[in-house]
Write the structure tokens for this entry.
Amino acid sequence: MKKASLLLAVSLLLGACGGEQAEGGRSSDVEKETEEGLKEEAVEVDFVAANDDSIPAGTVVKAEGIASPITGTDIGDEFLLTTQDSEGEGTYVVSNNSTVKIQDGQEITVYGSFDGKTESGSPKITATIIE
């Protein structure tokens, strides 16, 4: 769990740098290693488990689905992510902490920290990486 927290913290700090690049126009090796580590550690989130509080807050998760902006499409904005699994459809509130702008209806994969539920009861993910 400490490793997950450390990886997430480093990713957030790197994301806050605005995607600056190292000399020669290449992304820093540290940033790539951090992203790879986060992706490897992420577990596919299950909506039923997320909705019934079976997933501990801070768990590094991966979710795939369709994005619908709530507050905007920029870094720091929130959007809905509608997913499909064997139990049906699920919707997460996602806080965009990546450098990627999302578009309404875009199919994406998010990697980040599961943050429990919002005040309205929706499962929440803070996304560090969006593809």
Q: What stands out?
A: The chain has one domain: 2-130. Residues 2-16 form the longest helix (15 residues). Residues 13 and 88 are 35 Å apart (CA to CA).
